[in-house]
Amino acid sequence: MAVTVLTGCKEEAVAPEPARAVRTVEVTAEATEEAVTRTGEIVPMRALDLAFKVPGRILQRDVTPGDRVRSGDLLATIDPRDIENSVAMAEAEVAAAEAAEAAARAQAERQRQLFEKGIVAEAALQAAEAEAEAAKGRLNSERAKLASARDQRSYADLRAPVDGIITAVMADPGEVVASGQPVVQVAAGSAREAAFNLSAELASQAKPGLAVEVMLLSDPTVTTTGTLREVSPVADPVTRTYRVFVTLPDAPDAMSFGSVVEGKVLVPVAGRFTIPAAAITVQDGAPAVYVVDAGMKLERRPVTILRYETATAILSGGIGVGDRVVTAGVSKLRPGQDVTLWEAAQ
Q: Beta 260-268 vs 242-247: how paired, if at all?
């Protein structure tokens, strides 16, 4: 629209601002499903962290990751000298308790004989018998300690409780480990599954039983189909992602433990639209886009962003099918500005 300006007694017409040519894209209906892919790794379905029951210094470790073991195989050994010393001390305590018990029993027998002859009072006999019973109790206690010490002698050897594959080692010979500190991890059996880390938005849609296509990243021709087994209810404190596990009943041999895989699943996307990420601007601190209305003027609309992909943004609200969204130079635009379509000019 022309603008008239008074200058002295003359009127001067100012030319209107020309319409700006903008690049746009027309919003179209999305497919009802979207393929979501994430990278993960092959892990054992059942992994056991094995540890010594007593503390000590590791003398030897007989396995490395990838070794196959059978139930009862020796995995590692700690220095048994401390345990042997404990056994020797327990044996000495038992010997002393046996001698004390024998002496107390003999004393009680003497007191009984003297009481029968009327030489000592009944109280002396009762005291001797009580001491004999106490000595017997101390002997039983020391014998129990000796049995426990002898049992701990076998704790110096760490043995495989099941058949499986060594997947990790956490300690080396020469290290001093505490009781219960993991030393070796063994995968029980050969059952495998794929583990992935998902964002909170994706994890909320992941339901057990969902079919997942899994592909070996180093060889895309190696694929299998698994079933979502578990979604961790707690997010990782560092990455804020959720761990999910997919069972692979027919996993190819090439998908060995530790292999990097890609999982793909189809998720519903009703009411969602994909636009170039460059179309996103800001209105009052919230994401928005510029839409060309029927009068070829710009309208700035707030939008809801579900997530960003490499070069696109996935929206769930704010625009609809048929809207024409500006995709470039949005930082230099303003609401109500007259525009023309760059595509039409070309």
A: unpaired
Secondary element (H or E) of residue 299: strand 298-302
| Structural domain includes residue 3 | no
Identify the CA nearest to 28 among candidates 273, 263, 207, 197. 273
Quick check: helix, strand or coil at residue 168?
A: strand
pLDDT tens digits for 192-215?
899 999 888 888 888 888 899 999
* CATH number (domain holding residue 250): 2.40.30.170
Torsion of CA 234, 239, 241, 242, to 10 degrees: -40
Q: Which of 104, 128, 102 is nearest to 115 (CA)?
A: 128
Which DSSP symbol is given to 333?
-
The verdict on 108 and 150 lying in the same domain is yes
Q: Considering its fold, how many domains does the chain have in total?
A: 4
Q: What is the pLDDT of residue 74?
A: 92
Nearest CA among 132, 130, 150, 131 for reference residue 142: 150
Q: How far apart are the first and last CA of the chain?
A: 26
Look at residues 274, 271, 263, 270 and name the one whose alpha carbon lies nearest to residue 308. Answer: 274
**Positions of the chain with pLDDT lower than 50, given as ranges:** 1-3, 5
**Shared-domain flag, residues 53 and 178:** yes
Q: What is the pLDDT of residue 25?
A: 92
Give Rg (Cα) of the chain: 40
Helical residues (DSSP H) of the chain, grouped into ranges: 81-116, 122-153, 200-205, 342-345
**284's tokens:** 């009052």
Residue 208: domain span = 34-46+189-268
Q: How far apart are CA 141 and CA 158, in angstroms?
A: 28
Q: Which two tokens stand for residue 116?
A: 């029968």
Q: Which two tokens stand for residue 260?
A: 């990097």
* 259 and 252 Cβ atoms separated by less than 8 Å: no
